[in-house]
Structures are given as structure tokens and as C-alpha cells.
Amino acid sequence: MARERRTHPFLGLLIVAACVFLGRDVRAADYPNKLIRFIVPYAAGGTTDLVARSVGQKISEVLKQPVVIENKGGAGGNIGMDSVAKASPDGYTIGLGAISTNALNPHIYKSMAFDPRKDFTPISKLGTSTIVLEVSATSPIKSVSDLVAAARKNPGMPYGTPGIGTSMNLAGVLFTQMTGAELVHVPYRGSSPALTDMLSGTIEVMFDNLPASLPHIQAGKIRALAVTGAARSAFLPDVPTLAETGLKGYAIDPWFGVYGPANLSKQVVETLNKAITAALADPEVKGKLTASGFSPNGSSADELAELTQAEYVRLGEVAAWLT
After folding, report:
1. In this structure, which of 48, 70, 215, 267 has its CB flanked by the most CB atoms within 10 Å?
2. What are the C-alpha distances in Å from 37 to residues 60, 64, 95, 285?
3. How far apart are CA 150 and CA 193, in angstroms?
4. Using an 8 Å Cβ cutoff, are 81 and 41 in contact?
């Protein structure tokens, strides 16, 4: 009788694992060979949409594959980023994460479908934006002190932001804490619908990312009272920082980055990082973003990972006040 050959169970597992990793490496070596989905977790028309479309077009040219922008707004960006977290880790689905989605939201939402510290692969930082405190041009409020006085006189004055848990929401909460102004947060599903209401007179006060509001400010339809960053914006040189208006130590500079699902191969991350770096360095892209009030600034994948972790810890200390 012929002797039966048997493969040790452990050896069989090793063979299967080797095949899986070998297959992944082969696919990574061929990356990219088809369309890439770039998820924007907010409504079209806002800062994130502008950045993603400007950068995405150049990434497409560099990688010689289509890059399609998909806006998936809702839940402070959680819906869109959840679709990124649950995508196949092959590099064909990436997302535009931010200070809100990847550092702040887990502290303020009772139920999160993903953990930004574990469920994503950081790829590259995109840059930073400026938040502007603004009122409609027809408002009698001309300064930050006017706003504080009006809010104290009329408790419950509403202010709009692009959503709960956004850096603009954070800016509003810190403002009310430091001034004692009783403002009530009105969250929208992105900058575009909030600006529509401001321009129509439905809402009088708003914290917004500068790139989305800048055209309306320049057109004289919205009045900028202050910016929230540590320094004045080059696009609004005559507009003070909130710290300059008397709120000593006030400074919020929102950041944005590109993330993929967890477990992206190193080769895919390097390919995407190089494409993003090239896009941000392109004179046309850089000029367009800079002109909108956005400060393009790429990074290594490790630098974005470190930023995400550090901001997660820092924002956890103030998140309990966000509503």
C-alpha cells in the first residue's frame, strides 16, 4: 500500500498566507491600473471639495488613471470616511480626512463606525485652512465686540457651521467659552447650504472655512469679523485674529489629509504620496488653492500619522463641550 502523504496543518497555513501576501504584492506592483475613488465626506461646494478636485485632477495626470471625486456628506463627515474605512485595502478608494473626522469626532459621537487611529492608513497631509468668523453684510454687527454685546443682550443668538464636530464647531464653542456669549449652534451639512442661508438672511453669524466664504467676502456680501488662526490670513490682512481682539491664546488652524483603509501596502502608500506631493507642488494647483485661502502643505505618511494621534489626544480634552 502506498504511503499517504500528509501536509502538516501549520505548513498549510503558511502556504496560504504566503499566497495571500504574494498576491497582494503582485497587485501593488501593478498599482494603479484602474479608476481611483476619492471620497470627500462633505457636501459639494465647500473647502474639502475644492481641495479634493484640484489635487485629484493632478493625481490623475501623474498616475495616468481616472480619479473620481465622490461627495458623501453627513454625520460630521463620518459617513464618507466610514466608506473609506470599509473599502478594500488596495488603494482604489481613498478619502479626504480632516481634524474633525480623524481626530475630533470620536470624542463627540456616541456611536462611531470606525476608529480613526486604527481603521485608516495615513498617506499624506494636504495642508491647512483658515476659519473665519463672519456675519452677513447687512448685519449691524461690525466687530467681535459688537457680536459679544449682541449675544449677551439677546441670549440664544444662532450661529451656523458646516456641521457638528467640525473644526468650525470647535471654534464656535471655544468662542462662547472665552467670551461668555450665549450663542446657539446650528449645524449644516456643509459650507454650501450654510452660506446659502447666510446670503438669504436666514442666519446672521457663521464660523466657516475661509476658502468657501472668501468669494462672498470679496464680493461684499459677507463681513469678516476675525480669523481663528494664530496669525492673520494673507487674504484678509485687515481682519484681526480672535486673539488680537482680546481672546488671548485663542488659535485654531484646521488641517486636512488623505487616508486609505487600514493595511494599505507600503508600495501603494508611497505611490500615492509621491502623486499627492507632485500635485501640491504643481504651480497651477498650488496657485488655485492658495488663491482660495488654503495653504497647501504635504507630508510623509508617518508625519500625518503622528499628527492624527497627537490631535486625537489634544481634542479629547475639549470635546465634551461640543454640541
Report:
1. 48
2. 11, 14, 8, 19
3. 25
4. yes
pLDDT, tens only, 19-33: 555 555 555 679 999
Cis upstream peptide for 89 (omega within 30°): no
The contacts of residue 10 (CB under 8 Å, 6+ apart) are: none
CATH class of 27-128+255-321: alpha beta
From 3.40.50.2300, 3.40.630.30, 3.30.479.10, 3.40.190.10, which CATH number describes the 131-227 domain? Answer: 3.40.190.10
Strands 67-71 and 36-40: parallel
What are the residues facing 124 on neighbouring strands?
A: 258
Q: What is the pTM of this model?
A: 0.80
Per-residue pLDDT tens over the stretch 225-269: 999 999 999 889 999 999 999 999 898 889 999 999 999 999 999
